[in-house]
Amino acid sequence: MHRRIQSFLVLALIALVPIPSSAQQRAVPSGKEQIQLSFAPIVRKAAPAVVNIYTKRLVQERVSPFADDPFFRRFFGDGSPFGGGTRKRYENSLGSGVIVRGDGVVVTNHHVIKDADTITVVLHDRREFDAEILINDERTDIAVLRIEVRNESLPYLEFGDADALEVGDMVLAIGNPFGIGQTVSSGIVSGLARTEVGITDFRSFIQTDAAINPGNSGGALVAMDGRLVGINTAIFSRTGGSVGIGFAVPSDMVSTIVRSAVSGKPLIRPWLSLGATEVSAEIASAMGLDRPGGILVETVQPSGPADKAGLKRGDVIFEVDRKAVDDVQSMRFRLAVHSIGDKVTMSVRRRGKVLHIPFALQAPPEIPPRDTTVLKGQNPLAGAKVLNLSPAVAAEVGFDESEIGVVAVEIARRSWAARIGLRPGDVILGVNGRKIGVVDDLEQATAQPSDRWLIEIRRGNKTLRVEVG
Prior knowledge:
single chain, alpha+beta, Thrombin, subunit H, 4 domains, 20% helix, disordered N terminus
């Protein structure tokens, strides 16, 4: 009797022992539907709109044995007195693209088609088409192509709302990695609004861990509703292969560029017309803010849209149309996804108050006129094409809109300017002690004969002084 009671108690105690949660979660599928869960319906819808892009570029190679010798290049530049010559060959490259309109409009990356002499688009059904470039925007690394199709509508992907994405959302990456054929990989959104990635000028990337490899560039990042939310652009890798850190240009930026391309209008970004800096922890503490974030307005250009909107030095802009901005890059991105003539609302902290200020988007002005000039004569800058910086020109060449002065945009081969090492993008600050403000100043300064020349140049964040004589 006692043994029976003991056995019963043991069984009761065993029943009370908690079963590990992992065991509770493991279960045999209870139905066919649970076994067949799949991304296949999304892929079936999206894959036909993703294309392969092949480019061909004719290049010339020097075949002189001294062509790349630094000693000989120092004295003879690109020419060699020892014979030799050049030979021509074709370079081929491949990438991916996405059809975004049934009439044959295709989006890809700028770097996929850069300097290409011919561009071929290969559809999902293996048909091949020659493509023309509608827009090739280096600053966003987005290019828009058109292929000629007749009497049919091609499969295409509709744009989704990249702003609706959240970290953790599932996404698919579709492209042609390593040229092996169309490939689909899955992952999640790992990060949003990545502005610290220095790939393009307008940065607010979607980060994903979906496998992206060489050849995926220009391919589709697709949300679970089958819509296009990004164009895969770059990866972070030390080996060249995917390590789970990929970046895509959001669909709202891509759709803005496509609208401009289809309309035939030039792609013009709105003029910010103010100088600002990121609100760091130190700045936030000094201003009495509860946390860092937003951008602090440092300068406002007179008569610009910021001035007209009533923005003031010391304002902290923290939102554009209720979307957070934490640095100048995110601010520029939020404006760039809109068109000239649109209005946005900027949320601003000013002296402890929050203001919502309408901001009308307008094109950057070309003041002063660019006055494009090729410098000539007996001076070290001969052979350089220069022009005046203005907000419009600064936007074109990727400078800050507040930059002023004279910038070199082209350097003739074997010219004096090439020999002293002048580069496109250099801003010429002074010649022989004379300050250069506009092209006319530069022409007058270089027209004066001199045995010795002192040229002052700004290259990026550095100031260089070149002495010739």
